[in-house]
Hints:
Layout: H1 2-25, H2 34-50, E1 54-55, E2 59-63, E3 72-76, E4 87-89, H3 104-117, H4 124-130, H5 144-154, H6 168-171, H7 178-190, E5 224-226
Antiparallel strand pairs: 1-4, 2-3, 4-5
Helix pairs in contact: 1-5, 2-4, 3-7
Amino acid sequence: SSESHKLATIMSKVALLLTGFLFLLVTTSANGAKDDGIELAEAQIAWLREACGFFNPKIFIQPIFEAENAPLGLFAADSFSKGETLMVVPRKCLLTAGPSSEDMCDTTLNLIREYKLKEESDFAPYVAYVFSKDSIAIPSTWSDLGKELILNIRGNKLPPKDLTSVSFEEDCDGNGDALEEFAYLTVVSRAWSDKLVPVFDMINHQNGRFANVDSTRVHGRDDITVH
């Protein structure tokens, strides 16, 4: 109904405002240094190129707003023609649930496995980047007051039902371990279902008419082209 649509729109805008506010409150890198965050992001891009991927030289990385420890985003240094390729992510660079699973819980376990391998991981630059975050700013990590607010705005009719209760312990039969929870929230906030797509997941965007990029199918067989 139109009323449900209006409510969904309001909830979306409030969630964005609250998320933006939370970004001001949390640091975005383990050591709190903006330059280190950019260095990790650039290492990830270098890794992508070494894997025969492509990253358009007209894109650069910088904080999305002027504030200490602000989150990073990708920005255009020049104009693009319609359909111009922004990046190509080889399918071998995707961190997934595995060949026989599409379960986000399995993706989480694989992400943890790669994290524990440290520099020996084939995904080391990407894993270092995502684990450099101190917090994952989704409603499940908000304060009790924040959770109550977003639930009141959403009401009882709109999905998802687990808006403020996402956890590896509940969803994947975990043991409440902090590493498991952080990895799972990373997957929930970044993945296309069970698939983490390095570099592409750095693009900040909204949906609908505010969408600023498009791509080939993440759940296909070919490399992922972003344009």
